Backbone:
């Protein structure tokens, strides 16, 4: 079962310092947000998929499997845009491109998590200047995405057993129907969060201000090389977008 | 009749059920086995939540592969392990009404069904309470009522007494007994051998995704249970030590001992 995203592998991405990977992921996200042309979005998505396979040794199928929970949102995005935007064909195109943007952002996050252990991630956030509490919160939040996904599936099964079907009705009816899943999901998550906070406190979390770490992280040569490459790529993206006006279509007005 | 033929199932390529044959009618069958042996996975096939990779599941002749879970829910009710995973309405009444409403039942008939289901689990008078405000035993009984209101012929209960105190457990056991008297077929998943002894007419033991035993309770308790990570209830040990043989309740043991001593 998929309880965590982390995949134990011996790859280039795994060997990088968490800071490099955090900066790389953020840069990739910025790059994704710069463009909105469907063709460019498709290219970026494929590029990251391949990068994950080649540099992170995460199978394409595995990456896509992790993205599956985003499917309902993706379908909703593609379905809603043509309803709101005229002409409809263009709306559909934008819907598709926003859906791809969503998938690409998801993919970047997943690759970061699949190639970085949770404690290294926290360490990375802290070394980048984030307070420890915040670093812990962010990485716990990310850590719980798969757990939530399993929980949501379980709740959906329970409701299906009561004759509940998402497939029936128009979008509004469907959204209303989602409350049968969302409410138990929220209740269960709040409970988990509460239990987690108790667990942290019983282990004296926050008792000492100065934290020490068992394993320290270190930037190596490959990290600096990677960072230079990342910044070059980001610079190119910004140049393409703002100086050449590539890959962006005006949506409003 | 629920019929399972050569059922195979795998999660992500890992085989969890390895060719199970099974059939049940209107009887109370206990499904037992160690953690991770595949009980829940098996049970989820009976109302179509999971579809066989290989083999067939027939519910009153309906192939689960050709019917939705909603359609099957009229015949097979599945009470999930954690009742809170299904509660979302503001009142107990609406919570129980959710299932029948999904089946298209409304008005007077709906009200009758909710009333009947709440009565069956001894929860009349709880209609306007919030499901979240109930005790553990009440939540479990409400979960049963929610499924019961859909009037399924068969009921699957996944560990309905786990985590309950003795009194709440009794209240759930009594509901199970009366459901059985009403003629429901019941599949009870449990780790509690005392409960198996008290309630089951037949026992099915799953181990490592295979059915290793299927037969009457008496035969089940003469298996070397420790090999399967299970243990005999103390009551049975006591009965054996005193030379009484097989009993199901303390009363039976006492009765048999009295006869013996006379
Ligand atoms: N959604 C899932 N995805 C992948 N593997 C799963 C999933 N659900 C269960 N499994 C695995 O399948 C096997 C059987 O699990 P199952 O829940 O059916 O066992 P069980 O007999 O009900 O156990 P328990 O007594 O602990 O409830 C276990 O090894 C479990 O880890
Ligand atoms: Mg189980």
Residues:
């Amino acid at each position: 079962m998929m309880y965590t995203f982390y995949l134990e592998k011996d790859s280039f991405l795994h060997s990088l310092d968490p800071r490099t990977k955090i900066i790389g992921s953020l840069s990739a996200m910025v790059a994704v947000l710069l463009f909105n042309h469907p063709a460019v979005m498709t290219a970026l998505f494929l590029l990251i998929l391949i990068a994950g396979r080649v540099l992170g040794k995460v199978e394409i199928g595995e990456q896509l499997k992790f993205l599956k929970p985003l499917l309902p949102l993706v379908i909703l995005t593609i379905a809603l845009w043509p309803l709101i935007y005229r002409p409809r064909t263009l709306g559909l195109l934008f819907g598709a491109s926003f859906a791809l943007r969503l998938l690409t952002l998801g993919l970047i996050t997943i690759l970061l998590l699949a190639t970085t252990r949770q404690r290294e991630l926290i360490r990375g956030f802290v070394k980048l200047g984030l307070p420890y509490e915040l670093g812990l919160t962010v990485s716990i939040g990310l850590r719980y995405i798969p757990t939530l996904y399993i929980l949501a599936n379980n709740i959906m099964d329970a409701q299906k057993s009561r004759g509940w079907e998402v497939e029936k009705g128009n979008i509004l009816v469907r959204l209303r129907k989602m409350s049968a899943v969302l409410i138990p999901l929220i209740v269960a998550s709040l409970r988990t969060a509460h239990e987690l906070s108790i667990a942290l406190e019983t282990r004296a979390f926050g008792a000492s201000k100065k934290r020490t770490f068992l394993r320290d992280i270190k930037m190596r040569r490959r990290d600096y090389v990677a960072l230079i490459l990342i910044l070059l790529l980001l610079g190119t993206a910004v140049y393409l977008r703002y100086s050449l006006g590539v890959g962006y279509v005006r949506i409003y007005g | 009749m629920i019929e399972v033929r050569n059922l195979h199932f795998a999660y992500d390529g890992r085989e969890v059920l390895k060719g199970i044959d099974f059939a049940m009618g209107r009887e109370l069958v206990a499904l037992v086995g160690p953690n991770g042996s595949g009980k829940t996975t098996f049970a989820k096939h009976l109302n179509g939540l999971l579809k066989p990779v290989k083999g067939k599941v027939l519910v009153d002749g309906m192939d689960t592969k050709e019917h939705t879970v909603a359609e099957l829910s009229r015949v097979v009710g599945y009470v999930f392990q954690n009742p809170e995973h299904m509660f979302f309405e503001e009142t107990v009444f609406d919570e129980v009404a959710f299932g029948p409403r999904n089946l298209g039942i409304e008005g007077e008939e709906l009200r009758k069904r909710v009333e009947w289901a709440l009565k069956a689990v001894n929860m009349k008078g709880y209609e306007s309470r919030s499901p979240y405000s109930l005790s553990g035993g009440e939540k479990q009984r409400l979960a049963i009522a929610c499924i019961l209101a859909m009037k399924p012929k068969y009921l699957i209960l996944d560990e309905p007494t786990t985590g309950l105190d003795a009194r709440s457990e009794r209240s759930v056991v009594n509901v199970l007994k009366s459901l059985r008297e009403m003629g429901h077929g019941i599949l009870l998943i449990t780790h509690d051998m005392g409960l198996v002894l008290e309630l089951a007419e037949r026992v099915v033991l799953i181990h490592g995704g295979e059915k290793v035993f299927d037969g009457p309770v008496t035969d089940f308790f003469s298996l070397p249970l420790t090999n399967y990570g299970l243990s005999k209830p103390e009551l049975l040990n006591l009965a054996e030590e005193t030379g009484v043989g097989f009993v199901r309740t303390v009363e039976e043991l006492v009765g048999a001992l009295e006869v013996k001593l006379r």
Q: What stands out?
A: The mean pLDDT of chain A is 87. Residues B 39-40, 158 surround magnesium ion (ligand 2) (CB under 6 Å). Chain A touches chain B at residues 1, 151, 154-155, 157-165, 179-180, 182-184, 187-188 (CB under 8 Å).
